[in-house]
């Protein structure tokens, strides 16, 4: 027992001696500064040093502007259908769709209706996040832009949807046209 205690004390004292912080040895001049005195260049060097041994991120983990663009097969494009071209070119990009709810709904009614639509889209494997803009207007955000046109087709079939705007083009709902014709 005594031997173990002596070994423990000896190893602990060795650790204390060799783990002592050495003043100024093996450090570049910029690293000897106080952190509050670092310039942007010093911080950039420190960041580069930090990232040196890091593995590169997977493409789906990169920010959108750094992700590789999917290849588009131009032979499969039907140039007579501009919507199909937009759908193919927006694949993998974030796209927003502005959806207007018909009538004069309150903000709470709009939230309720659009939440049902969002759930229906999710059930159909179309990932969309919704953000209210006005009492009767909501933004649906699609991480994969090609899904926005599929969602548009679904939303335009809904009774309370007035119109959908994607990439600056407004698609009126057939239900809204019927209401206007009746009035």
From TrEMBL:
Subcellular localization, as worded in the UniProt entry: Endoplasmic reticulum
Domain of life: Eukaryota
Keyword hit for Signal: yes
Keywords associated with the record: Chaperone, Endoplasmic reticulum, Signal, Wnt signaling pathway
ATP-binding found in the keyword field: no
Cleaved signal peptide residues: 1-19
Record field: transmembrane: none
Gene Ontology cellular-component annotations: endoplasmic reticulum
Annotated InterPro entries: MESD
GO BP: any one term: Wnt signaling pathway
PANTHER family, per database record: LRP CHAPERONE MESD, MESODERM DEVELOPMENT CANDIDATE 2
Family: Belongs to the MESD family.
Protein name: LDLR chaperone boca
